[in-house]
Design brief:
elongated, two-stranded parallel sheet, alpha+beta, 17% helix, single chain
Length: 624
Amino acid sequence: MPATFADVGRWTQRHWRYLLAGLLALLVLATLALAAFPWGMLDDTIRRELSRSLDRPVSIGSVARVDGVSLHPVIEIRNLSIPQPDWAETDQPMLQAERIELGFSALSLLWGSVRIEQIGLEGVEARLIRRADKRTNWSGEPEGSGSGGAPLAGLSRLTLRNVAIDYRDAVKDRSFRVTLAGSSDKGLRLNGNGTVRGASVTVRAQGAGFAVRESGRWPFGLQIDGSAVGLTLQGTMGAPLAFTDLDALVSAHGSDLANVDALIEAGLPSTQPVRMAAQLYRDGETWRIEDLTGRVGRSDFSGRATLLKKDGHTRIDGELHADQFDFADLASDAGRAEAAAKTARIGERVVPDTAIDLDNLGNTDGVLRITADQLLWPGSKPFRSLDAVLELEGDTLTIAPLTFGMPNGTLAGEATVTQKDAGPELHLQLQLSEGQLADLFPSAGISAPAHGRIALTGTGDTVRAAIGAADGRVALTAAGGSIPEETALLLGQDVGGGLFPDDAEQARLRCLVAGFDFANGTATLRNVRIDTSRALTRAGGTIAFPDERLAIALNGIPKQDVTLRVEGAVPVRGTIKSPSIDEPESADSIGDFIGQLAEAIFGEDSPRAADLDCERAAAEALNF
């Protein structure tokens, strides 16, 4: 008769002691087997797995277990040699080691991990290479393709004798040759030298004995010293060599911020000389930068940031504030010289040649809030302060809100840059509110409240190049101001009155209305009119970007009697920065001029212009 559940239950109650004893015996036998396992017999397995993972033949002289029966075995590897990958331009091995001693937790293997507890290195020479495509000789994978971890979190004993590392990095143009010595009992030392972007540096690092603690944490220090670049970290880790648990004061200097970036790899640009300091914290994949202060050229800055680094991706949330900021500081001396040479070759331009390519930012997203109380400029510029929020998400950088403070009013809105196959696409949507013409054109002597709009989209590696290919519209209006009498008369083509004005007298500027239609970087003037108490002037033609080349014709009609009016359109050529006014098209000779003079004296009165409906014209210009 088959056994029932009740029969099984009664049998278990009678024999549970024997079952428990059998299970305990099995567990003890398994533990003893693990503790006594001859790990040295795995030399072929270790060699084969290393060769497979690195895709190159690894050689090992011997592998032996050097401790007794224990769940914390120690194995000794002798005469290990790992060659370079095929692409390395050297025949010297990537790693040579006379002796490596590794102690680990055998029980950790049951959970699918290796907990390293003891390391001893003797006679080790490592030659590490990262080439320009970020491929490394120690992993074979482009850097950032793996995940981070804390393989030394359980390390309790470390011994270093005759250990040297030669590191060559083509990505950041840096190289170091260092030696390591010391032990977990007496402390660790690193010494050496190298170059960073061609500049010589010395490298030193220190770590206390593993038993030493400062407020429960392990103290360490790092110093990279050089005249062109330097970096210092002084702080503590949660445990010896626990690089994922940092609390350190960091300071850095460089003749160029790009030199500092060659050490920290944050995607920073070239600049004027920089000096900065901050408190740095790391908790696993999260980095925090607090109490950041520094100076770049004439610009100062302070702020904070949180960075999450995971699987080769970085996400930033930060704030930067400057009491004063000079955009020119965001260029190195070499960059300034290059820009000056370009200006000498092509002439001055109004639109900046600022790079907007996002490729150099790599796999980075996040938000950065920027404020500058005072913007510094080499000459007279209308923008006095800056308030912006930058958000980078995937292939798109959005700057919104974006506000430039001016002596009067603001220029505000948003700007976006989207990285596309054809290059960066720039989109501008800005509005001038409560502005002043005197701020925009300080040398013209014109004063009037101003408003405007910009809506442009173009593709190019720089702002100038993108505007040079842009489509969209721009408008500027002003009303209720003043204009020099001479300028007002000349705008009405009253040459006689314009040659002998009252320098102190001002005409009334009823309004200025200017619309520009952009198509592939060429701005066509649309219903551009300047209405003063002296004349009404209309302008037509084009402005070709990025050269900012003018091809404009002015037609002025006076509102009162004139001394001598020159007939015909007045051509305006040159560039926005260097315009030139030619003689009117109807005055091609001295005879034409004499004829116009006689007409002014003996002829009939010229037609008179009526006032423009300024409010309506301004509304139409800004309606887009």
